[in-house]
Amino acid sequence: MSNIKTVERFFTAVAKNNKEDIMSFFDEDSVFNNIPMGPVKGRRAIWEILKITAEASSEVLFEVINIAETDDGVVLTERVDYFNMNHGKVAFSLMGAFEIENGIIRQWRDYFDLKQSMDQMPSDTDLSFLD
Q1: DSSP characters for 55-107?
Q2: Conformational region of residue 73, where left means phi above 0, alpha means psi within -120 to 50, and beta covers everything else
Q3: Model confidence over 71-91: pLDDT tens digits?
């Protein structure tokens, strides 16, 4: 299976917004670098970041604008991540890179404009995870 297919399966799991399905793509050596927030390592730490939007959303969708795989298997994505939250829908425009090994995401890096994303959130949103 191509690494693109693995990433597409991961996006489907995210759309289902089910923790077990989502976390099946990671292990204790996986790293998620949600730039500009900084990297975390391991399933539990990755979930601590993902749950912020997953638990606050009734619907999640990763709309892929462009997807490509490099010769060495890195999957590059241009996408808009939509989260239907209590206060309304938010859209995060971003670029991502996924390094896959045997169906496991080893490295996941997302690059986005934090201010643009946070400007969509209510003023009382807990942003302590940014510290």
Answers
A1: TTEEEEEEEEEEEEE-TTS-EEEEEEEEEEETTEEEEEEEEEEEEEETTEEEE
A2: left
A3: 999 999 999 998 887 777 888
Looking at this protein, which amino acid is placed at residue 36? P
Contact 35, 109 (CB under 8 A): yes
3-state class (DSSP) for residue 124: coil
Q: List the domain boundaries for the chain.
A: 3-115
Which CATH number is 3-115's, of 3.10.450.50, 3.40.50.11030, 3.30.70.100, 3.40.30.10?
A: 3.10.450.50
- What angle is formed at CA 48 by the lines to CA 44 and CA 52, rounded to 5 degrees? 155
Give residue-wise pLDDT tens across range 105-131: 999 999 987 666 666 665 555 545 444
Determine the longest span between alpha carbons in the chain, in angstroms: 45
